[in-house]
Design goal:
The chain is mainly α. It contains ten helices and no strands. The protein has a single domain, classed as Up-down Bundle (Ferritin), CATH 1.20.1260.10.
Length: 224
């Protein structure tokens, strides 16, 4: 399992996902997400745009998550919080964006994610009464911290352009890459068939949106 986890980190473009893998394997004696949240805050210290603020808010909330070591419960709990960021980002684009392609994507995302959050909340309630269990997931702390350093570099490289449509696409790509990576990591240990289907569907739809946004950004031709 250690090998599979390491391959996952190398293979996926969304290096940012590794921080959420840490939520399932926090170092002994540490609070979940403590190092991660501090690093994200530092990475965004010089950015005051409202879209970056959405991500900072999500990470602060994730820091407070109380994990149970039950993959289904913890995945549902984190995703129910994390996906709220996609709604906030989409609503900003819907209300202030100018590009019809991005506004349409934002409307579609807002509707889809609200349905996904409902599914995750139901799954969380279903898992709440179950006993804790070991995940068996073996990704080393050293590997996670190394990947987190790369993640922070990526976050620092985000530069707001002042074009809300473009910045929305940039931030939502990061958000979707994280959600996709977290879902792929969950599928390594999933047992609940309904939740597995939810994760697989989320991965497919997020990857479709990522492809659309990257193609749209390439035509916009801002340098980042």
């Amino acid at each position: 399992m250690r090998t599979r986890g390491f391959v996952l980190i190398l293979a996926l473009p969304g290096v940012i996902l590794v921080a959420f893998l840490l939520l399932f394997n926090p170092p002994a004696g540490s609070n979940s997400g403590e190092r991660f949240t501090g690093a994200v805050s530092a990475a965004f210290d010089q950015k005051d745009d409202e879209l970056s603020g959405v991500l900072k808010d999500i990470y602060s909330k994730v820091k407070a998550v109380k994990l149970t070591n039950n993959p289904e419960n913890d995945y549902s709990l984190v995703m129910a919080i994390f996906l709220g960021g996609a709604i906030s980002l989409s609503q900003k684009e819907i209300s202030k964006g100018k590009d019809n392609t991005m506004k349409d994507l934002a409307k579609r995302t807002d509707k889809r994610v609200k349905s996904e959050i409902s599914d995750f909340n139901k799954a969380k309630d279903k898992q709440a009464s179950k006993k804790e269990k070991e995940t068996g997931q073996g990704i080393t702390t050293r590997t996670l911290f190394t990947a987190m350093d790369l993640m922070i570099d990526r976050l620092r490289s985000y530069s707001p352009t002042g074009d809300l449509d473009y910045d929305f696409a940039s931030i939502l790509v990061i958000h979707h890459q994280t959600a996709t990576g977290l879902s792929q990591a969950f599928l390594e240990n999933s047992i609940d068939s309904d939740l597995t289907k939810t994760a697989q569907k989320l991965i497919y739809q997020d990857e479709q949106d990522i492809e659309q946004m990257l193609e749209w950004k390439a035509k916009r031709k801002y340098s980042e």
